[in-house]
Write a structure and sequence with these properties.
Layout lengths: L1 H38 L5 H23 L6 H29 L4 H24 L15
Helix pairs in contact: 1-2, 1-4, 2-3, 3-4
């Protein structure tokens, strides 16, 4: 069991901390959504963008310290980290309204579904690009090996 953990410790830590980050981000979105739409009469996309900034910054700090354990390179890594989440946010800005407006799903339920998709792809990006010493995206493309 110790060998298995040693071999996959980073992935296990990523899953555990990623689970926390997912709950945190979803909680921030849900709180901002209910408060923003009820009291401030905001469109649901506004809480999405605000929660995105808060959640991504929090996730970066936790992954850097507890999963990938890198030192320095704060700006470079944060830029790389945000790059993934800009793509994720762009997709989310298209898919969330599609799920809500076209399929009639609740915004909170829809966002929960979209979080799963982002979580599945984020580990590869962060392990092989964000926190990698290699400056290229070659590791993310299997055909380049």
């Amino acid at each position: 069991m110790k060998k298995l953990y040693a071999r996959h410790s980073q992935k296990i830590q990523y899953l555990l901390i990623g689970g926390w980050n997912t709950v945190f981000g979803y909680g921030v979105f849900t709180a901002l959504y209910y408060y923003g739409t009820t009291h401030l009469h905001l469109h649901y996309v506004i809480p999405l963008v605000l929660s995105h900034v808060i959640s991504v910054t929090s996730a970066y700090l936790v992954y850097k310290k507890f999963v990938f354990k890198t030192k320095g390179n704060f700006i470079r890594e944060y830029w790389r980290f945000c790059t993934f989440y800009w793509f994720s946010l762009a997709a989310n800005l298209v898919l969330l309204p599609a799920l809500v407006e076209l399929f009639g799903l609740d915004p909170v339920i829809s966002q929960g579904l979209l979080i799963v998709v982002a979580a599945v792809t984020s580990y590869l990006w962060h392990a092989h690009y964000t926190f990698s010493q290699d400056m290229s995206l070659k590791k993310l493309n299997p055909s380049s090996r």
